[in-house]
Write a structure and sequence with these properties.
Helices cover 0% and strands 3% of the residues. It is mostly loops. It has a two-stranded antiparallel ribbon with strand order 1-2. The radius of gyration is 53 Å and the shape is rod-shaped.
């Protein structure tokens, strides 16, 4: 303090490294030594070596709506913009990632693989609400896909329709005893052939008149 005015304060912090001997850390502040971040010559000059630091949330608060876990699970201490996260065995994708607009609202891991996002496999068995994920093709009839298609194969089964008209049963035909139908009668006259005379009949000759 200055002798002429108590509010005039000037102190050379050079060489002083134990800040806690005079200053109390702010509430919920990093509990370590001030010189780990601040420079004695200028309090606003902050430089901390994050190498080998993994407990980021001890100093930094998570962003609103951000992953609630440890920052070092994704970020690196030497470059904040280098993000690498091992998704192996993680299935609760929605705890970090938002569902794209118009996308299926279910869990991402039900279709996508955590090892390769482009590898998509979904077990459609017992699923009948196809329209929840798939849009209807242009010009396609309306209605639920599962009314025609199956989850086992997308091909549409086309069974042969059965006739509802009862046809009379025909008797079995014995080929050895086939009854031929009679020829229908016509209006044309029947021509009968006259048999030629035989030699057994006598020949009559007429006697001329005298």
């Amino acid at each position: 303090h200055g002798f002429s005015r108590w509010s005039s304060i000037s102190f050379s912090h050079e060489g002083h490294v134990v800040c806690e001997s005079c200053h109390n850390p702010p509430s919920a502040h990093y509990p370590g030594a001030c010189v780990n971040c601040h420079a004695p010559v200028s309090w606003k000059q902050i430089d901390v070596n994050h190498t080998d630091f993994t407990d980021c949330i001890a100093c930094h608060a998570s962003s609103l709506g951000h992953y609630a876990g440890q920052c070092s699970d994704c970020h690196t201490t030497y470059d904040w913009w280098i993000i690498d996260f091992d998704h192996t065995y993680y299935t609760d994708c929605l705890s970090c990632h938002e569902t794209p607009n118009g996308h299926w609202p279910g869990e991402c891991s039900a279709c996508h693989s955590t090892e390769d996002w482009l590898e998509i496999t979904f077990d459609h068995i017992t699923y009948t609400n196809c329209k929840a994920c798939h849009p209807r093709p242009d010009g396609h009839p309306r209605g639920q896909c599962s009314n025609c298609h199956t989850t086992d194969t997308w091909l549409i089964p086309t069974p042969t329709p059965e006739s509802s008209v009862a046809l009379p049963l025909l008797p079995e035909v014995d080929e050895d005893h086939v009854t031929r139908p009679e020829q229908p009668a016509t209006d044309e006259p029947t021509v009968r052939a006259t048999p030629a005379p035989t030699s057994a009949e006598p020949t009559i000759r007429e006697t001329p008149a005298p």
